Amino acid sequence: MAIGEICNREVIVVAPETTISEAAQLMRQHHVGDVVVVTEEGGRRKPVGIVTDRDVVVEVVATGLDPAVLTVGDIMVPDLATVPEKTGVFEAIRYMRDQGVRRMPVVGEDGSLVGILALDDLLELLAEELGALVRLVAREQGKEVKDRH
């Protein structure tokens, strides 16, 4: 299964010049833990950074900086790790682990933003699959008991 099938396609995006206060308000309004920083290139949104709620706390609040003055471009994670939408689930998990990230923008073939993949999405998918395997084992055991009596 490709991650393009499971990623969240409703991504909250901001421009690099968006203030931290504005970004935090968007996170609160949309009940999300991050915003993806994008630039417009030829009518396409290209992800250039990501700012998480943790970044806001650690980089701004804890240091006493003014969130109304700082921008997401000032604190966004440099060297953004993205993953192509055709990437398989296990390859995406391995890449997220290698990069040490819990959230990763998903891009199309042209590098434009198509979604975001979060660790929570992967855990939900894997829990469903494990549940299906458990049901399979129980069904097989029940069938065996029925067939042998």
Would you write up a description of this structure?
With 149 residues, this protein is an alpha/beta fold. The chain is 44% helix and 21% strand. The chain contains five helices and six strands, in the order E-H-E-E-H-H-E-H-E-E-H. The protein has a three-stranded mixed β-sheet with strand order 1-2-3. It starts with 12 loop residues before the first strand and ends with a helix.
How would you summarize what this structure contains?
The protein has helices at residues 20-30, 53-61, 72-75, 89-99, 119-148; strands at 13-14, 34-41, 44-52, 83-84, 103-107, 113-118. The protein is α/β, with parallel strands linked by helices.
List the helices and strands and how they pair.
Elements: E1 13-14, H1 20-30, E2 34-41, E3 44-52, H2 53-61, H3 72-75, E4 83-84, H4 89-99, E5 103-107, E6 113-118, H5 119-148
